Amino acid sequence: MSNLQAQVTSTDRAFHVEGYEKIEYDLIYVDGVFAVDNTELADSYRPYGRALMVIDETVLSLYGDAIRTYFDHHGLDLTVVPVQIRETAKSLETFETIVGEFDAFGLVRTEPVLVVGGGLTTDVAGYACASYRRNTPYIRIPTTLIGLIDASVSIKVAVNYGKHKNRLGAYHASQKVLLDFSFLATLPEDQVRNGMAELIKISVVGNSEIFDMLDEHGPDLLRTRFGHLDGSAELRAVGDRLTYAAIATMLDLEAPNLHEIDLDRVIAFGHTWSPTLELTPPAPFFHGHAINIDMALSTTLAEQRGHLTVADRDRVLGVMSRLGLALDSEFLTAELLADATGSILKTRDGLLRAAIPDPIGSCRFLNDVTTDELADALQMHKKLVEEFDRAGDGVDMFTGAHD
Ligand SMILES: NC(=O)c1ccc[n+]([C@@H]2O[C@H](COP(=O)([O-])OP(=O)(O)OC[C@H]3O[C@@H](n4cnc5c(N)ncnc54)[C@H](O)[C@@H]3O)[C@@H](O)[C@H]2O)c1
Ligand SMILES: [Zn+2]
Q1: What is the CATH number for 230?
Q2: Binding site membership of 180 for ligand 1 (Cβ less than 6 Å)
Q3: Residue 104 and residue 195 in one domain
Q4: CB of 156 shorter than 6 A to ligand 1
Q5: Ligand nearest to the CA of 197
Q6: Could you list the residue range(s) of the whole structural domain that residue 72 is in?
Q7: What does the DSSP 8-state code read for residue 279?
Q8: Which ligand is nearest to the CA of 295?
Q9: Is 17 part of a structural domain of the chain?
Q10: Contact present, 83 and 146 (Cβ < 8 Å)
């Protein structure tokens, strides 16, 4: 799949090797990926006559019959490895269990593993594929909004280590991603809201048209799962356009920088202080609420700095709030912000690189935010959010099931 071509130069006392690894992958829309008439998936496995599928247990319980019917119909042997991975089990142990299944199956070197589920399943199984024989191909079928518009668009895979999210991982593109948004029909509302925070992210700093769509249709898209659950054809069309634009924008921004060598990343908006905030409450925040609180504060900061008008600031906060996303939290304190700044500086090579909107749809990076300025912005932010629904609290903010 990927080939490394390198050139060697040498002197008497040294060799220098320089090469580039080709990265190539496809994201392909399929409406009803397990409908027997859609051969996209079967075509990928026909050469092997069989498939090893790592799948989220909940997704298996909902779609297992359709999946078995599909593989039967196409005369392909299916081996199913159900996994139930919570954030706390996004671990090396789970990774090892999956690797054990590869061995038991007797995976042939070029045979792609099929991975079906949300970001947790695809991250852990993807990392197992990255490591297995140093490089095993895989095909992803994301089944959550986060998976569809974010995790499976990127080439990053990982497990957590100790208290650190995604501390061990790899850049390992899947051969193919099959995008089937009809999975959203069964996704619980709190999970859809969680994914919508990433759409707010990409829109506020990367694409004002997406922002306008979220402004106009956000709550309806949430309620109807982007038109896949009792939604009108019109809403479904809006959802399709919006998610397509989000994927396109993310690829535009990230494809030139797949290995994240440039650390000024637009799509890191909301991911500056939230990594520390997310795991602070006794039961962690949903990722979407944690990044939203970070984005909301960054939006207030952008207005303070003169990069957003007051009206635009309130528009951004309004769109977030109407989706039920948190604007603030008692866990967001000046001390936490100082700690989180220290932590992100290490990840970002000594510079803050805080993405903020300038204006909506465009991005600017701030490196000179002092602890005092942050504390002031926070104070102002806490006053502001009082005017919004739930006084800035989010709906279903915590992942209660995890701890
Ligand atoms: N690799 C990346 O670039 C990247 C990007 C974003 C997020 N992530 C990672 O993704 C993880 C979060 O992923 P997620 O939000 O998809 O969570 P998840 O994989 O835990 O799925 C959320 C829940 O929804 C259930 N579910 C999945 N699909 C369903 C469906 N169609 N119908 C009903 N229920 C369904 C799952 O069983 C689970 O309980 C985090 O660990 C995060 O670090 C990675
Ligand atoms: Zn994120």
Answers
A1: 1.20.1090.10
A2: no
A3: no
A4: yes
A5: 2
A6: 26-186
A7: T
A8: 2
A9: no
A10: no
Structural domain count of the chain:
2
Residues 97 and 242 in one domain: no
CA–centroid distance, 287 to ligand 2, in Å, is: 7
Q: Whose CA is nearest to atom 30 of ligand 1?
A: 187
pLDDT per residue rounded down to tens, the chain (403 residues): 446 678 999 999 999 999 988 899 999 999 999 999 999 999 999 999 999 999 999 999 999 999 999 999 999 999 999 999 988 899 999 999 999 999 999 999 999 999 999 999 999 999 999 999 999 999 999 999 999 999 999 999 999 988 788 999 999 999 999 999 999 999 999 999 999 999 999 999 999 999 999 999 999 999 999 999 988 999 999 999 999 999 999 999 998 888 888 889 999 999 999 999 998 999 889 999 999 999 999 999 999 999 999 999 999 999 999 999 999 999 999 999 999 999 999 999 999 999 999 999 999 999 999 999 999 999 999 999 999 999 999 999 998 743 3
Token reading at 371: 């602890």
- The contacts found for 388-392 with CB under 8 angstroms, 24 or more apart, are 388/317, 388/318, 388/321, 388/327, 389/321, 389/322, 390/321, 392/296, 392/321, 392/326, 392/327, 392/328
